[in-house]
Amino acid sequence: MANEIRENLKFLEEGWGRLKVTAKIGNSEWKTAIWFDTKQNTYLLPLKAEIRKKENIGMEKEVEVSIWI
Q1: What pLDDT score was predicted for residue 67?
Q2: Alpha-carbon span 23 to 21, nearest angstrom
Q3: φ, ψ of residue 54 in degrees (nearest 5)
Q4: Which domains does the chain possess?
Q5: Which of 10, 52, 60, 65 could serve as a FRET partner for 22 with CA atoms 20 to 30 Å apart?
Q6: Cβ of 5: how many Cβ atoms within 10 Å?
Q7: Which element (helix H / strand E) includes 37?
């Protein structure tokens, strides 16, 4: 999926591979950004402590994430 996003929407990226998105996990929806990591060749979605706490996300917990670009 990251390759498809990069191929089609790279022109929307800002500095350092930052691409604005809206993300949703559980009942939490927020405006954020995904960042392209050239070492892993994929996008990363940082999660704020507020979201991790609200959605009870800890280490090794699998979560479903939706993003809108």
Answers
A1: 97
A2: 6
A3: -60, -40
A4: 2-68 (2.40.30)
A5: 60
A6: 19
A7: strand 28-37
Strand partners, 14: 18
Q: How far apart (Å, rounded) are the C-alpha atoms in residues 66 and 26? A: 9
Per-run averaged pLDDT (10 residues), the chain, 69 residues? 95 94 98 96 96 95 96
Long-range contacts formed by 40-47: CB under 8 A, 24+ apart: 41/2, 41/3, 42/2, 43/2, 43/5, 43/6, 43/17, 43/19, 45/21
Question: Do 55 and 28 contact (CB within 8 A), yes or no?
Answer: yes
Rounded to two decimals, the pTM is 0.85
DSSP 10-35: GGG-BGGGEEEEEEEETTEEEEEEEE
